[in-house]
Structures are given as C-alpha cells and as structure tokens.
Amino acid sequence: MDELIALSNATLDRLRVERPNYDRGALTPGIVHIGVGNFHRAHQAWYLHRLMQDGKAHDWAIIGAGVRPYDTAMREKLMAQDCLTTLIELDPRKTSAEVVGSMIDYLPIEDGNGALIRQMADPSIRIVSMTVTESGYYIDPVTKGFDASHEDMLHDAAHVDTPRTAFGAIIAALRARRAAGHLPFTCQSCDNLQGNGDILRQTVVSLARMSDPALAGWIDENGAFPNSMVDCIAPATGPKELALARDFGIKDNAVVTHEAFRQWVIEDAFCAGRPDWEQTGATFTDDVHAYETMKIRILNAGHQVIANVGETLGIETIAGCMADPNIRAFFGAVQRSEIAPTVAPVPGKTPAEYVDLIEQRFANPQIVDTTRRVAFDGSARHTGFVLPILRDQLAAGRSIEGLALVEALWARMCAGTREDGSEIAANDPIWDALKDAALAAKTRPVAWLEQTNLYGDLLENPTFSRAFIRWLEMIWSQGCQAALVEYTKSARA
C-alpha cells in the first residue's frame, strides 16, 4: 500500500480524491455550528462546501463549537487536520470519497462558554446552527412546553454571563449584540424535531425571559428561527470507517461515512442573510411541515419500529434488522397500515413511495448504522416520533396494534437483557427509571404505561392499554419473533 497521507491543508494537493478547489485561507466565517458530529459534517457542511466549490459563499465558512466536555475529543481530532473531513459515500454500487473544507476553525470548549459567546457576538456571524439531539431542547415530554424547572435552565438564568448550555450562550451573545447596536443572527436547528425552529425559538426566548424579559422580547421580534427537515444517514465512526479512509490513501481520524442520499428542506426565514443552499440541492418552501411529517414519521419512527426488537435479539446493525425476514415484514406492515395513513404526500412523493425508499435505505448493507445508536434516547424518540402517530390513529379510530407492539418491544428492551441473556448497557438519559419500570412490567405490564412523563393519559385509553398488555405478555412468554409473526399475519388478514 502507498504511504498514507495525513489530512491537512498542506497535503490536499497530494490526495487522489475530490478536494477543495478554493483557497481555504481566504474563507471568512459566517456560521457558528454547535454540535459538530458526523451528521453535520455529512450534511450542512457538505451543502456549503458544494457552494464553495462553485466559487460562492466564501464569506459563510463554519466555525465549529461545543458546550460539553466530550466535544473536546472531536475538536482535537479536527484541529489536528485543519478542520478538514473526508466524506465517504457508501452506495451499494460503488464507494467514493471527497474532502470537505467548509469548516475553518473549532472553538475551545470552556466552562462558561466565553469563547463561544464572543464568537457569536461578532457581527460577521449571521447564522448559529446546531445539532444537539432531539432531547437537548429542554422540552417537557408530555406538554411539549419549555422545561423551566430543569437544573441547566435554572443555572443559566442565574449565571447569564457564564452559562453551561448552548442556549444560554446564544442568549449571552445576543445580549452583547443588542448592547453594541448589532442585529441578531438567525438561530437554525438541524435536529430531527418536528417544528425544530419553533422549538428552538421556544427554548431561547423562554430561557431569556427567565432573566431578562426585555431581551427576550427583542429576540422574539427581531430574530429568526427557520424550521427545517434534515435527512442523511451518517453512522458513527469506528475502526471500519477509519480503514475505509485508509483505502483511499488518507489518514483521517474524523472520517465520516454516509449513504448516497441527502435531503434538506428549509423555511426561508432568515434575519441576516443566508448561503444560496438551493443551488446545491436544498429545498426552500413555506410548507416544511409536510416534508418533516413524512420524514419523522416514516424514517425516524421507523427506526424505532425495528431498533428495539433488533437490540433485544442481538442484531447489531439496522441493515441486519432489515435482513431478518420477520423484522422486515413487521416494519412494512406497521408502516403501510398504521404510519403512512397519518402522512400527507409532498411534491413528487407519496407516503407509499417514501416507505419504499426508506426500506431500501435501511437495508443498505454498506451503511453500518448500529442498532444501539438508533435505539439510543428512546424516551425522547418514542415520545417525539412514535406516540404522536399512535394518538392520531386512536383519534381516527384506526388500528394501533402494530404501534402498541412497538411500545411493548421498547419495554422489553429496557428490561436490560437480550433474549440470549446478555446485558443491554444503559442507553437512555433516564435508563434507570426505564429499567425499573420495564422489570416491573414483566409481571404487571401496566407498570410501563404508568410512566406518565412518557405516556400522559394513554394508560386510560383501553384500546391502547389492552393491546400493549397483550403484546408484552406474549413477548415475555413466547419471545419477540412470535409477536412479530402474529402481528404481521393479522395485519395481512
């Protein structure tokens, strides 16, 4: 094998893959992105990079940021290679690579977030975007309102100059901009939340109101929080992904693999300008809701349909789950009979066509997307993705048998052991509470539904509660596969 080339500005000309054709030294910042994970670098950073390749948006470069101690490891990796990332596209027909250069710096992670606040206060920054996971917005899981009682929010309201969260830092920067006579930046969520811009506005404005109502009003009136729908599967990086970079002759400690599919649908509501992302494939529309409903319900809820049972059965990847005939049949039956009926078509795509697309994407064996990663944070993902569908089905008088089985499979997974007896390690911010409820539900299934912080009043709905109890009892007595077969057979009848 030829000698590996360590990724850096100095070695770009030696690479044999597509790489930045623009002068990275001449780029100037316009965006701060908080939460620099694989998805951001395969998605938003790529769209901007493609614009830069066309000679545009050179004043919109990204500065990375983080607010948690674990972000330091990513910063060190990226700074060591001049914030460059190798993206490897895993198409079943071919594998290709390109180096993306739209990020030019990564701020140090500090207690009090001083460097982040100062950077966002700079008027050159016109967008602050983020990927902080679905559970990171301080939302009450039942009311969907702002959780003002959370210790992080109480801390940031009391320590406005040294906040611990991204939202507290955003407010501190906006306070500085207002005092200096500058306009606010656009706050842009890139997380899988329906109405993610509205939720981001709720969190920022509500937190600001706890300490400075006048500032909260200024942000609400003058700021912008566009809704968006984002989509691209970008698995976690491990030894296999690092080896793929080496196959291209590149030493990249932060390589990202991704599927051959991207979608970004954005509400055109920016208060300080934006890059022309539509020129590289993004869709701007006034009806983001229809796109995000289709994606969140069919893809994101679909992930929960298969990940929990896959984890319980010891299947390591999502593609592996789809290779199991009973799981795939279950996925298709739930999607077509209980999820798709709650989704409206969008231009160019019906719900049935989107289900077919997602089946193909999930089954791609080149994408090593771990079942554990997809099953992570079920307390946010079930309440955010699955239960709204279940409630809509109940309200319409349609079947919820498959969705009740999805919830029973989640309860079985949270008991903490697989069917082969091996341990399932903690995989949720409230894992201990989930595990206690799941173990109690082994002999008294209703104990799982008594988690009103998750299920609200659904316990009181006899259609759902009876179905859930029946499925969980079958899972514990006959196993997951028997329950999948029983549901699929009844759905076809």
From TrEMBL:
Gene3D superfamilies named among the record's database cross-references: N-(1-d-carboxylethyl)-l-norvaline Dehydrogenase, domain 2 (1.10.1040.10), NAD(P)-binding Rossmann-like Domain (3.40.50.720)
GO MF terms held by the record: mannitol 2-dehydrogenase activity
A Pfam family that the UniProt record links to this protein: Mannitol_dh_C
Limits of the Mannitol dehydrogenase N-terminal domain: 30-278
Enzyme Commission no: 1.1.1.67
Domain of life: Bacteria
Key words of the record: Oxidoreductase
InterPro entries registered for this protein in UniProt: 6-PGluconate_DH-like_C_sf, 6PGD_dom2, Mannitol_DH, Mannitol_DH/Oxidoreductase, Mannitol_DH_C, Mannitol_DH_N, NAD(P)-bd_dom_sf
EC class (word): oxidoreductase
Domain (Mannitol dehydrogenase C-terminal) ranges: 287-475
Full protein name: Mannitol 2-dehydrogenase
Organism from which the protein derives: Roseobacter denitrificans (strain ATCC 33942 / OCh 114) (Erythrobacter sp. (strain OCh 114))
